[in-house]
Amino acid sequence: MAIAAVESPPAKRRRIEPSLIEGLPDHISETCLSLVNRPSLLAAVCSRWRRLLYSTEFPPFPSLYTLFFDSTSDPSPTNSRIRFMCFDPVSSKWDPLPPPPPDSPLHRILYRHPSYISYNLPIQCISAAGKLVVIAGSNKELSPAISHPLIFDPISSTWSSGPKIRSPRRWCVTGAYDGVIYVASGISSQFSTTVAKSIEKLDLNREKLDLNRNNWEELREMRDLRFSREAIEAVGWRKKLLMVNVKGNAIKEGVIYDVVKDDWESMPEEMLVGWRGPVTAMEEEKLYSVDETNGKVRIYQEEKREWREVTVVDGGEEMLKGALQVTAVAGKLCVVTGDGRIVVVDVTTEPAKIWNLELPLGLEPVSVHVLPRMNRPDIF
């Protein structure tokens, strides 16, 4: 009697991922794809390329980090109305940053004080060395709310505290150049001429900041006290920090701090005249200003020592009126306006294109910063 052969079940086949680019090893494909300067184009090709964008093998693309004020939540000692969110330009999605530690200074910072109904208190944060740093603000007693900078690292998606500032202050100058942050002037709990003329720096390029040591370095003091009147953003530009002591169209004074020579000089009048609103430096090389009164965009031409007007699309200047703060990267300006909008200006086109960014409901933008994208585990 013949016995039929028993067929063994087929072995499970392991699914083999297709190559990123047919005919090339993946490590070479990754190098080629990393040269594309518009990640959104890669994301539109296939899911594998989209996953690559958020992997550790691919250089993090720039995203927009925004400090918001939540006007809809009720104020309380345990509920901060300060929100940080990140706009992912590939997914066109706003993601909240992970919550900071419970003892973070965000719970002490006030943006609106009951005694100053029509005035917003400044919250000063800057970006440096690929990190977001909250560095100065006021508490309900109108004293400095921050003694240790609050630092967010997008790559690890974690918050940490920086070393204690030698002289915690508010209404001060804050700026960054080449991964080093600077704090100058301002006032502490009470006005002090020593604090109003002082400047100190913290190098974020170090691998690890020692919280048990004073990593802040005192620098050559300022020449006068005229920079403690307002919260001022020092613009890092060509190994210098540019500072102007008054906002708007009032009579103002400008100074320049040379970060290499540790020395001060007066700002040339032809440069100072362009400070009619917020100013920023593209890649710390090209200076742009946005006129808060008429919305005109200008670029500073150092060789001619003059500001040249940038042509924008029809109606664009109207959208930029009331500009409060601006940052720049990769040919685009991101502007926060007084009526609660974020406006993007593409200065690589002629005329420059301008559009509004759709914002989360109930949140009022305070400042914008460009940093590497956060990790997105939901992509995988």
UniProtKB/TrEMBL annotation:
<dbReference type="InterPro" id="IPR036047">
    <property type="entry name" value="F-box-like_dom_sf"/>
</dbReference>
<protein>
    <recommendedName>
        <fullName>F-box domain-containing protein</fullName>
    </recommendedName>
</protein>
<dbReference type="InterPro" id="IPR015915">
    <property type="entry name" value="Kelch-typ_b-propeller"/>
</dbReference>
